Structures are given as structure tokens and as C-alpha cells.
Amino acid sequence: MRGIAAAGAYVPRFRLPGDEIAEAWGTSHASGIERKAVPAADEDALTMAVEAAERALSSDAVDRDELTLATVATTTPPTEEGELLPRLARALDLPRSVATATVGGHTAAGAEALSRALDAEGPALVVAADAPEGEPAEGDHPLGAGAAAFVVADDASAPVTETAWHTEETPGVRFRERGGHDVESLDVTTYQRNAIREAVTSAASSLALDPADVDAAAVHQPDGRFPYRATADLPVSNEAVAAGTVVDRIGDAGAATVPLGLLAALDAESGDGGDADAEAGGRSLAAFFGGGTAVAVAVEGGLDVEGIDDLEGGTEIDYASYLRERGYVVNGEVAGGGAHVSLPNWRHSLDQRYRLVAGVCPDCGGVSFPPEGACQSCHSRVEFEEFEAPRTGTVRALTVIGQGGAPPEFAELQQRDGAYAVAIVELDAEAGRVRLPAQVTDADPADVAVGDEVRATVRRIYEQEGVPRYGVKFEPTA
Ligand SMILES: [Zn+2]
Predict the structure, then answer these.
(1) How far apart are alpha carbons 141 and 28 in whole angstroms?
(2) What is the DSSP string of 65-125?
(3) Where's the ChsH2 C-terminal OB-fold domain (predicted)?
(4) Which of 140, 280, 352, 401 is the most buried (most CB within 10 A)?
(5) Which parts of 226-343 are beta strand (E)?
(6) Which domain holds residue 51?
(7) What does the pLDDT read at residue 332?
(8) Do 24 and 110 lie in a common domain?
(9) Which residues make Cβ contacts (< 8 Å) with residue 199, sequence separation at least 6?
(10) Is residue 337 part of a domain?
């Protein structure tokens, strides 16, 4: 049966404890949220989507060359929607023939994306990635970030047995305005709560599945208490709701929250997870709500989810660091011009920047990165034979760029993220050693040393001409 054949999760490493919010504002509008995930200054819905999708595609269940559809659900596209999927497809090296669709504007977007993949012919990739932002004094309190990726295929280890929709006009129930990134307030009134509970109850009750038999339920979760209230009229146990609730640890990740809750449930149902009570082959329910529509999805079985451990742990930051990372506080203008890479030149170099494509010299066999201009070994002008370098390697040299030392185009990231390390990274390819300079991310520069193992991750490099530029950075593996 068609369903989820592989899955990956990604949650940014920074965590803001709920009591930091309460201390900063005297009150917290994030009930039941102990900590929330904070995207680093160089992360957004696209970089998180790439990371989660790479993890899902690392399973050998489906070859990425066979994908016929890629669909992304997000309420916070970092670029024009038309530009999001080509970038994702390029960074993931998806077939150029892949059909693409972006779904956004409401928190049930993940259900819509999943439905399209279930209706499609052939293997499909679904990614829900979101980093909603609100006004810091209130609306932003519960908002977190994260990404969930699903590979949908026939003969899946976690078949999707049913999907039911319930649409009702619910005036005044507004969680995210279409097209906007900002949310005025996420406080939920009794009226809104009742309207959502009724819609979720109707959708879940139209399934043949008896909610009493559900082992885990990932229910619409704008805060930590909501999923329990939304299922009050259904015979779903509190244990089942807890198994599918992630908002308490990562905050409300918009369109990605319920998909991440479903992945937590499926991983627990895989039988070899941390949960000793979990039985392989359980029943999971996902209940989405957004824009007046509730969607209930029934899934059987379980699977190991690459990256699901991101839900736990992370690095705690204080409120001041949080404001900087999110770009709420960025001081000063940057003077001067600096290095300028034109858009055509940038576009021409995408295979290097995303996929680490290097070249072998046909004359001397030497390896050059980037595979352009003269051979770096014999200095002949040659037509390189291109190949993809491995995405893990070793730091061979290192420098830390402190305040004021960065080229102007990197200054904004630096103000938000602090000093950063630039390393010469060596990748051991079959054709030979590839060396390239790259930023090191997700690490305190003081903790990075020559000899460290690192892996490539696609991140935001900087913005120029109003266009965010993405490329490979490296993060320590240990
Ligand atoms: Zn050569």
C-alpha cells in the first residue's frame, strides 16, 4: 500500500527556554512550551527543508533519481515561492524532470502536500519546513522551527490507510494570514478552541479507524495544551496525544509541527526506538488544522526516522542571543562595497556551491576546485572531467573572523551570529583530494580545531541585490 517509505527530521540546534521569555516580558504566551527551537541566523525554511530531505533520502528505500514529485509545505518561504522549489531541487540534486508544488498560507499545508504525494504516480518527496515569526512582545513567544521530510511510495513500511477532510466556515479563526510571515497573536480564545475541536473531531470521526485504537496522535499544536483540548471529544488516550506532541520541546513550527509529531510517533512505533512500550506495527493519527480545514490522516506501522533525536537536546541560548539570531536586533549599517559576485556568475557556480562538484584535469590527473579556469596542478587550460566530492572531510587550516573582519556582505550574519570560523576543508575523493575554503557553522569558533571531522550543510551565505545566496558550509560531526 502507498504510504511513507522513509522520513527525515531536522530541528535547529539552538533552544530558548520558556522561562527566558517569561523573564524578558514578565509573562509568557507560550503555554506548555518548555523550550523552543531557534533557527540560527543562516537558517530558514529552505535550509531546514534541504537538511530534512537529505536525511529522508539517505535511506535506501527510494533512489532520488526516481522521484516524480517534490512538494514543500511552508508558511514562511524565504524567497518568492516560484524560487523555493528550484533551489531545493538543485541543492538535493533531484531529477530536472521532477514536478514541483509549494503549499503555504496555513498550518494544514503539510496535509495538502502529503495528499498530493499520495495521489501522485511514482515516488514523491514531501517536505514541511517552517520558521514562523511574530511580534517579539507576544505573537512570537510560542513560535519555533523545524522540518519534516517524507518519501511517499508504493509498498511503504508505514502505509497511509485513510485521509479525511472537514471544512467549515469558522469566522475569526485566524492563525496566519495568507502570504504574511508575521502573526499578530497566537492566543487562542474559547470560541476558536471550540471551532477547531469540532473540526478535528469531525475529520477524525469520518475515518474507519477507531480513535480509541490509536497508539499515537499528532494533533494541531499551537501550544502544549492544545492537542489535549482539541481531542477532548474523541476517545484518544492522553498517552497517545503525548506520543505525537513535539511543540513542548521545539515550539510551534507552523506547517511543520504536526508532520514532526507524526514522525516522532512513527519512530516510536518502529519498535526499536527508546520507548520500551512501543509495539511495532501500531496505529498513528495525524490531525491537521489550518484555514478552517481539519485533515485527519491514519498511518499504520512505523519506521526509523533519521534526525528524530534533534527533538531532544540542543544548545540553550539566552534571550539576547535569541534576538540577535532571529535578526530582531541587528545594529548599524555596513559601510563599503566588498566582493561582488554577479547573479549570472553565481548561478553558473551552483553545482560547486551546493553539490561540491570538482574537476579532474585530463592532462595531469590533478584535482581542481572550483573546476574552472586553469588546472591548479599543471596550470593548463583544460576541459575538466567533473565529479561530486564527498560531503564529509577534515579541517586542515582555520581562521576566526571576528567583529569588523568580515567582508561587508557577511557583516549582517556576523552581527547576528557572532564571530565565525573559516576553514580549509579537505575532502577525500576517489579522484584525489579536494581542498576548499568554507565557513564553519553550528559551532563556537573556539571549539573548532585543525583535524576536526566536518560535514557539508547547505546554508544561507549572504544576501546581495536583494537575493539570498545559498551554498555549502561545514559543521563539525562530533
Ligand atoms: Zn593538470
Answers:
(1) 7
(2) GG--EEEEE-S--SS-HHHHHHHHHHHHT--TT-EEEEE-SSTTHHHHHHHHHHHSSS-EE
(3) 388-458
(4) 140
(5) 283-290, 293-300, 315-316
(6) 3-176+183-325
(7) 34
(8) yes
(9) 166, 167, 168, 170, 289, 292, 293, 294
(10) no
What's the whole-number mean pLDDT along residues 224-241? 95
- Give residue 180's pLDDT: 41
What is the reported pLDDT for 178?
Answer: 37
CA of 355 to the centre of ligand 1 (A): 22
Backbone CA torsion sign across 413, 416, 422, 426: negative
User: pLDDT tens for residues 112-139?
Assistant: 999 999 999 999 999 999 999 877 777 7
Residues with CB under 5 A from ligand 1 (ion): 361, 363-364, 366, 375, 377-378
Q: How far apart are CA 79 and CA 58, in angstroms?
A: 26
For residue range 136-161, list pLDDT tens digits in order: 777 788 999 999 999 999 999 999 99
Give residue 309 CA to ligand 1 midpoint distance, Å.
45
Closest CA relative to residue 145, chosen from 326, 286, 412: 326
Any residues with CB less than 8 A from the CB of 439 and at least 6 apart, and which? 420, 421, 422, 423, 459, 461, 473, 474
In terms of domains, do 280 and 356 share one? no
Q: What is the DSSP letter of 372?
A: -
pLDDT bin (cut points 50, 70, 90) of residue 182 is very low
Q: Is residue 301 part of a domain?
A: yes
Q: How far is the CA of 435 from the centre of ligand 1 (A)?
A: 15
pLDDT of the residue at 170: 67
Looking at 274, 290, 325, which one is the last position of a domain? 325
Of the candidates 131, 133, 139, the residue with the CA atom closest to the CA atom of residue 73: 131
Decide which of 187 and 42 is more confident: 42
> Is 335 among the domain residues?
no
Name which of 43-47, 100-104, 199-203 the model is least confident about.
100-104
Kindly give the distance from the C-alpha atom of residue 434 to the centroid of ligand 1, in angstroms, as a whole number: 14
361 shares its domain with 217? no
